């Protein structure tokens, strides 16, 4: 069995790491480069860096932020936010990122996934899906940092994105984001049944048992922000909890 990954997420706005609840009421938490280095030294398997206001503000990912973080890291590093073309994706990788994450621009232009995959390889293209539960037991995809409903069914969008070349899914439950109530296990299970690429579960981690639950539901990696940013749990504690449930992880030395 492949080792399960633990991934801190750095949501960045106005040059600072931020965290909110259900994508709202953001708190500013400090320098992203310093946080990235701290998490790497603490045993993070990867990091995800999201320029969360880029799409809403209609601009590209701020390259100076990417460069500052990449300069500190020796673990895989995914960057998302405002990437609208294969050339922009290539520029982000050239700054030191290992993978790029696309969301809003891919919703309006699905062929962007294919073009990025052809240029960089599927392994470097992550399709980020921000999903919110609907009254009929399904999930709707939201764009622009979880602010704009699209009418797209999350499961169908995941399936389409992978058929176009996405090599990984970053799956965030808007309903659970920042709530500490645990991941949306039904959402993870539904996406797992639809695609065979790795899934990164995001949104809702608040207790140690939540991480293994997400993996049991079908996630290959678990992403969290609040529990790490506010010092509730260390990456080492999360990995120990996952391993105790029978899932292999990379040791923290």
Automatic annotation (TrEMBL):
Superkingdom of origin: Bacteria
Main location per the UniProt record: cytoplasm
Pfam families from the UniProt entry: His_biosynth
Pathway: Amino-acid biosynthesis; L-histidine biosynthesis; L-histidine from 5-phospho-alpha-D-ribose 1-diphosphate: step 5/9
Keywords linked to the UniProt accession: Amino-acid biosynthesis, Cytoplasm, Histidine biosynthesis, Lyase
Annotated EC: 4.3.2.10
Keyword Lyase (UniProt): yes
CDD domains, A to Z: HisF
Family: Belongs to the HisA/HisF family.
Protein name: Imidazole glycerol phosphate synthase subunit HisF
């Amino acid at each position: 069995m492949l080792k399960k990954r633990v991934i801190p997420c750095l949501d960045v706005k106005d040059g600072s790491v931020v965290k909110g609840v259900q994508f709202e009421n953001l708190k500013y938490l400090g320098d992203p480069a310093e946080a990235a280095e701290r998490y790497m030294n603490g045993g993070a398997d990867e990091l995800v860096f999201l320029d969360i206001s880029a799409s809403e503000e209609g601009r590209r990912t701020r390259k100076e932020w990417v460069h500052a973080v990449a300069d500190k890291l020796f673990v895989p590093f995914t960057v998302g936010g405002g990437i609208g073309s294969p050339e922009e994706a290539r520029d982000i990788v050239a700054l030191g990122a290992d993978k790029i994450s696309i969301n809003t621009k891919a919703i309006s232009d699905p062929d962007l996934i294919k073009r990025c995959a052809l240029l960089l390889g599927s392994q470097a293209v992550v399709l980020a899906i921000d999903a919110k539960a609907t009254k009929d037991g399904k999930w709707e995809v939201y764009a622009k940092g979880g602010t704009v409903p699209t009418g797209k069914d999350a499961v169908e969008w995941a399936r389409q994105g992978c058929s176009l070349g996405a090599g990984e899914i970053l799956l965030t439950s808007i309903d659970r984001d920042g709530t500490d109530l645990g991941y949306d296990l039904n959402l993870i299970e539904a996406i797992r049944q639809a695609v065979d690429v790795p899934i990164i579960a995001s949104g809702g981690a608040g207790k140690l048992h939540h991480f293994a639950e997400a993996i049991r539901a079908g996630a290959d990696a678990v992403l969290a922000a609040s529990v790490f940013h506010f010092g509730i749990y260390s990456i080492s504690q999360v990995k120990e909890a996952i391993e105790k449930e029978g899932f292999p992880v990379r040791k923290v030395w």
